[in-house]
Write a structure and sequence with these properties.
With 133 residues, the chain is mostly helical. It has helices at residues 9-28, 34-51, 63-89, 91-119, 123-127. It contains 5 helices and no strands.
Length: 133
Amino acid sequence: MAARGPAILRPVVMALHWTALPMIVGWLFGAVPPVLIAGHAALWGTITVLWGLRGGPSPALRGAMRTAAHLSHAALLGLYLVGAAFALTDPSLARPVLLATLAASALHAVWNLYRAGVLGDGAFRRMLPKALH
């Protein structure tokens, strides 16, 4: 399935994707202000609402596994959005939600290493800027 929306969204969403980890860790250590993490998450969420998820499940997956992989992207982004919103409104709630987001993103990273190494589906070519191919 091809991504929808303007072509400029590809590098924008890639930048949002790759900066989410330092954004969360920075907020947890007090180096990123709440408004910055909330703005980061809101921009990513707005793009997703308007044009859909930019990434997709592995072409090597079929059936329920393909659906589960697609839903996990939405769930991970949703978790990040909730945590970032709490960073603005209730930091005591933001911390556990953003820690859960980090845990889920670790599983996301391991899965993508599996995709690239075992399934050989070109996962990193799809996720990295073209300059790094």
